[in-house]
């Protein structure tokens, strides 16, 4: 443990030495940055000469990404190894940022997970962890970031990873769909509140994406991904990045996906749930 702390201290000292110069770059904090959409978002920020704080559970993958970004794009990267499903993680992140005087301009809440299966057959501990990560940690990070920017009268941008799941109930992934509905609703609401203070909030709503999420959540077992064009993590990340920089409240990746919220509003809620149940049913 002591060696890990010393290692982290060395890395953060290197990071702050670079970013606290007169021509300091802006800095983005990205959760779930080690792979998938989070990794591609980190690359997008680095390509645009933005320093990054990378947060995830895997120290090996984070260090590999850190080394790649610093070598390829001449930016500074700092890694934080955190289990974001733990309630104290958000406060720990911001305490560390304050301690080393790292000023974050962009917050990207990408970390999250889902689980495919019948609600009553899934262990409660799994749902508890999902709700903690997808809702509580995301909300807490938004709150800490917004307070910090508004108190300092500084502009800032937040990108929250929601999903096409946010627009309808999802039998067989009931809790995951519900958490993403929360993320969308929260993002739109606080985005409206923060507008006058110069802090924008964007909710990114991708459909099925080519990441490890499908296998890890077991969603690949459903009809949802049958015959559906799967977006690349790179494409989704760029859509989200551009929308965030423009301050858009909601962005949906994919032309066909843009039709779903319209149909959901027009159809009876009972029918929407029935269709969703068919789509989320197990493959034959």
Strand and helix map with partners:
Elements: H1 2-19, E1 27-31, H2 36-47, E2 51-56, H3 59-73, E3 77-81, H4 89-99, E4 106-109, H5 124-151, E5 156-161, H6 174-194, E6 199-205, E7 209-210, H7 213-217, E8 231-232, H8 233-246, E9 250-252, H9 259-266, H10 269-279
Parallel strand pairs: 1-2, 1-4, 2-3, 4-5, 5-6, 6-9, 7-8
Helix pairs in contact: 2-3, 2-8, 4-5, 5-6
Q: What's this model, at a glance?
A:
This protein has 10 helices and 9 strands. The protein is an alpha/beta fold and 284 residues long.
Account of the protein in words:
The protein is α/β, with parallel strands linked by helices. The chain has a single domain, classed as NAD(P)-binding Rossmann-like Domain (Rossmann fold). It is built from ten helices and nine strands. It has helices spanning 2-19, 36-47, 59-73, 89-99, 124-151, 174-194, 213-217, 233-246, 259-266, 269-279; strands spanning 27-31, 51-56, 77-81, 106-109, 156-161, 199-205, 209-210, 231-232, 250-252. The strands form two sheets. A seven-stranded parallel sheet has the order 3-2-1-4-5-6-9, sandwiched between helices. The protein is globular and about 55 Å long. It starts with a helix and ends in a 5-residue tail after the last helix.
């Amino acid at each position: 443990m002591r060696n890990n702390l010393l290692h982290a201290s060395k890395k953060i000292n290197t990071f702050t030495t670079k970013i606290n110069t007169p021509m300091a770059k802006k800095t983005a904090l990205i959760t779930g940055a080690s792979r998938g959409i989070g990794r591609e978002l980190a690359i997008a920020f680095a390509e645009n000469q933005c320093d990054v704080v990378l947060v995830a559970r895997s120290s090996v993958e984070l260090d590999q990404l850190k080394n790649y970004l610093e070598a390829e794009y001449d930016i500074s990267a700092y890694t934080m190894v955190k289990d974001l499903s733990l309630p104290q993680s958000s406060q720990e992140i911001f305490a560390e940022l304050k301690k080393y005087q790292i000023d974050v301009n962009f917050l990207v809440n990408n970390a999250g997970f889902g689980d495919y299966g019948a609600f009553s057959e899934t262990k409660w501990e799994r749902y508890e962890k999902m709700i903690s990560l997808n809702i509580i940690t995301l909300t807490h990070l938004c709150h800490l970031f917004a307070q910090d920017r508004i108190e300092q009268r500084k502009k800032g941008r937040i990108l929250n990873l929601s999903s096409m799941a946010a627009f309808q109930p999802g039998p067989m992934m009931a809790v995951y769909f519900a958490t993403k509905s929360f993320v969308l609703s929260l993002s739109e609401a606080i985005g409206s509140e923060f507008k006058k203070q110069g802090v924008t909030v964007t909710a990114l709503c991708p459909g099925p994406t080519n990441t490890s999420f499908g296998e890890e959540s077991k969603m690949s077992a459903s009809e949802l991904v049958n015959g559906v064009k799967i977006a690349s993590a790179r494409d989704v990340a760029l859509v989200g990045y551009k929308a965030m920089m423009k301050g858009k409240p909601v962005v949906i990746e994919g032309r066909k996906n843009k039709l779903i919220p319209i149909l959901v509003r027009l159809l009876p809620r009972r029918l929407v749930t029935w269709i969703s149940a068919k789509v989320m049913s197990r493959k034959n």
